[in-house]
Design goal:
95 residues; mainly alpha; 434 Repressor (Amino-terminal Domain); 5 helices; 49% helix; globular
Length: 95
Amino acid sequence: MVTTSIDPRKALGLRIKQLRAEYPLTQEELADRCDLFRTYMSRIESGLANPTLTVLHTLAKGLEVDVASLLAMPVAKAPAKVRSARPVSRGRVAR
């Protein structure tokens, strides 16, 4: 029997994406709720950042779940992307 293990940071990122899809929250909206930079939120979701315990509690509060639910194993595949109802400014100015 061959078992594959998933990197815990990638598992956390998949779980956050799953919870965002359930609520539906965009990455920008969750970052705003948690008072985090969106780029840091992106690094957490992609498994490139290793968040501190304080950030885990902040994310759980922003998603309105407890930390144990946040750290539960994610589904096997990534959920569908959540689109914002209002356009998000990326710093571009129309001329």
